[in-house]
TrEMBL record:
Residues 9-169 form the N-acetyltransferase domain. This is Acetyltransferase. It comes from the Bacteria. GO terms for molecular function: acyltransferase activity, transferring groups other than amino-acyl groups. Pfam families: Acetyltransf_3. The keyword Lipid metabolism does not apply. Gene3D superfamilies: 3.40.630.30.
Length: 177
């Protein structure tokens, strides 16, 4: 896959050298709520995943890209998932790994690059995002990129003994700013 290049970041395909970063992300319990993960992943499983990461989105129905600074430092990950070429839609998720890298515009730039890629190259009609009602920063990010809150899934996730609402955001190609 060709690298998607922005002003301050690039999106690129995952590489075998990303093993330790992916291992850190997948095994960091503070991120588990975002992906509904409940168990750690071994380096063996992640290595197998990376060996197959080159497979086509039309085959595996997902695309995960690394968000890298211009110095090639890994900042986070951005995903298309539940890719449905028939109905021309996909889910989208993003994670900037370290708190000190958040709020600097990297997520917004990555999200805008992937939205443009999805609508232009994958010919999608719409993207959606599932965001915790408590995640105000993520809500703001998606709203500033043209997503609209279209629903609330009440008591959707059960985290640390508490049910939490999840918000459904959507952007339709004709409505992109």
């Amino acid at each position: 896959m060709v690298t998607l290049s922005g002003t301050n970041i690039d999106l690129r395909a995952l590489e075998p050298e990303d093993l330790d970063f992916i291992y850190y992300i997948e095994n960091n319990e503070t991120f588990w709520e975002l992906s509904t993960t409940q168990t750690p992943y071994s380096k063996f499983l992640i290595r197998q995943y990376l060996e197959n990461a080159h497979r086509d989105i039309y085959e595996v129905k997902q695309l995960r890209l690394a968000i890298c600074g211009k110095d090639e430092a890994l900042l986070g990950l951005i995903d298309l998932f539940d890719f449905d070429p028939v109905h021309k839609r996909a889910g989208i998720g993003i994670l900037i790994a370290e708190k000190e890298d958040r709020g600097k515009g990297y997520g917004k730039e990555a999200l805008k690059l992937l939205i443009a890629y999805a609508f232009t190259h994958l010919n999608l009609h719409q993207l959606y995002a599932n965001i915790s009602a408590e995640n105000i920063n993520s809500q703001h990010l998606f709203e500033t990129c043209g997503f609209e809150k279209i629903g609330v899934k009440k008591d959707w996730t059960f985290v640390s003994g508490t049910y939490k609402d999840e918000l459904l955001y959507q952007i339709i190609q004709n409505n992109v700013h």
